[in-house]
Amino acid sequence: MNCITPIRLNPVGFRSVFINHYCLIRFNIKHKKPHEKAHPSSSLGSLSAAHQLFDELRQRVCKTEVLMEEENWEASSSSETEEPGFAADDDEEFHSGPKLQFRVGSSKARWVTELGMAEVEVKRGKLWTTTGIIRSGKTYCFIEEALYLSEIGELQILGNEDVVIPLKGLYEMVTEEKSGCCWESYEVYRYLKGLGYILGRHGVPWTSKGAAIMTPSGEGEDSVTKLLGDMQLCDAREVFDVYLPNSRFKKSSPGEPSFVACLSGDSPPSKEDVRVLQSRIAAPLRFCHIAQGRVSFFSFSSINLPILP
Amino acid sequence: MQINSMAPRWKWKGAEAKALAEPISKSVSELQLSLAKTESSGSLSSCNVLLAVEPEQAELLDRCCFGKLVLSAEKVKKWIQLSFEEAFYLLYILKCIKLSLRGRCLENEVDTWMYMRSKRPNFPAFFKTYSHLRSKNWVLRSGLQYGVDFVAYRHHPSLVHSEYSVLVQSGDSDRLRVWSDVHCAVRLSGSVAKTLLTLHVSGNSNREDLNLPTCLENYRVEEQTISRWSPELSREDETTSPTPKVTNVSNLKTP
């Protein structure tokens, strides 16, 4: 830490300086008696002390600067400025997501039981460029999107009589598997989203101009029946289209996904399962294995070794 | 169809050129001619075949990576230990050796096949995969050190590192049936910089048919690689697809 010029501390406000896109706060604290050695509790002895003070004050702090930092973080996690190997050292940090929840006036959505989705009513932040589907000019999100955003404090879901559905209620909706997403799928969603990837349910277009929203997991009877029919052919199933982090992502033209995340249940996919899935999906497949909150991705690829001279 | 493109790692500068100058197929042909000319004969034991050869032939066998030299003081003749797969390949595919069992020469290939099968029930699937890759001029050695069935080299092990660790999967095998097996095999392969390759042997497996080596023609071998992908290492904002994760091999892209 560089040396700090002492100035008067306003108990409500403080100066924050952003050194890099991780929020590093420097405090300027006034010493009561300049000639005396600063008392440890009021001196800027360490970064952890600074963070502690920050925690205590954040409730009363003007949100604008902090808001900016949050958005920068969102955007920067999907920008090219990070070194590729960078995140490997900060494994745990990315897995657990941002720890501090700043938002009070966050986005709001209303859960619509008939649709099995939430209709977004208030949007805050750039995150909506990569979350939720658009139908007739409105944005809707699936349970995994709603839950993830709620977990990180970005979204409040309203239920009956405008009561905010607590996290407990949202978790139940996932574990009960009534909204098209099981817990394993959610783990995959959360893990990849936290790393900046863009995910959408396989088979659900991001936008559908003019089409009213019909069913939660498909665009009409035909596709749902087809989906169910396909699923019966093998134990493995496709779950999410995954796109690389992309600050220029557009729902109107998302392009081809980088890969399709699949689940195969609690055993690896058989060769036949892989063949069946790959025959109807052009993109590369990656099979997810979820255990103890850790997600691993495996490719099972058909190849043909060349004939050597 | 995805091709797992891990470039061959040649062991020294000039190794690749040497490999190109002396293709495996050529060495194998030379070996075939040499062994046939001297009517080389091997004797079957319960787990391998012992082949007596001239010193030049021992060198040829080494060049094609068949067998392991049994060290002895003897200078006139050399003894090579061959695995069942290697021996049967020389016998049945290259047709350049003869085999004897307990002093009696086995005239019929079927007898050898039956004997080997009786000692190792998984021999048919193992041999099918061995000959599948050998016919494509890949060099196969035992994979025991790496916890797999074979390791596949693009050329002689002195010139190149092996690229694939090979596991044999037949219809009724229970290998890689649980996720921890997959994690284990992939991690092991990755830690020695190889790609895990599974060879699935399938076909009409009539029990009677297995008695004849001609059943081999009815079998099909399908190749599949299994690799692990690490999302942390592949987030560049490009259209190129992420590279699979291989531990101990740097795949960090320079910005």
UniProtKB/TrEMBL annotation, chain A:
Pfam families found in the cross-reference section: tRNA_int_end_N2
Map out region (Disordered) in residue numbers: 71-91
InterPro entries named in the record: tRNA_splic_suSen54, tRNA_splic_suSen54_N
tRNA-splicing endonuclease subunit Sen54 N-terminal domain location is 97-157
List, alphabetically, the GO terms of the cellular component aspect: tRNA-intron endonuclease complex
Would I find tRNA processing among this entry's keywords? yes
For bias type Acidic residues, the affected ranges are: 80-91
Which keywords label this protein? tRNA processing
What GO terms describe the biological role, i.e. biological process, of this protein?
Answer: tRNA-type intron splice site recognition and cleavage
Instruction: Give the coiled coil ranges.
Output: none
UniProt record similarity statement: Belongs to the SEN54 family.
Q: What is this protein called?
A: tRNA-splicing endonuclease subunit Sen54 N-terminal domain-containing protein
Q: Organism, per UniProt?
A: Brassica oleracea
From TrEMBL, chain B:
Its UniProt entry gives the catalysed reaction(s) as: pretRNA = a 3'-half-tRNA molecule with a 5'-OH end + a 5'-half-tRNA molecule with a 2',3'-cyclic phosphate end + an intron with a 2',3'-cyclic phosphate and a 5'-hydroxyl terminus
Q: Where is the composition biased (Polar residues)?
A: 240-255
Query: Which stretches make up the tRNA intron endonuclease catalytic domain?
Result: 127-204
Using the record's annotation, list all stretches that form the tRNA intron endonuclease N-terminal domain. Answer: 41-111
- This protein is called tRNA-intron lyase
Q: Where is this region: Disordered?
A: 229-255
What EC number(s) is this enzyme filed under?
4.6.1.16
Q: Which PANTHER family does the record cross-reference, listed alphabetically?
A: TRNA-SPLICING ENDONUCLEASE SUBUNIT SEN2
What domain of life does the native source organism fall in?
Eukaryota
Q: Which family does it belong to?
A: Belongs to the tRNA-intron endonuclease family.
Lineage, opening ranks:
Eukaryota, Viridiplantae, Streptophyta, Embryophyta, Tracheophyta
Q: Name one Pfam family in it.
A: tRNA_int_endo_N
Please give the coiled-coil regions recorded for this protein. Answer: none
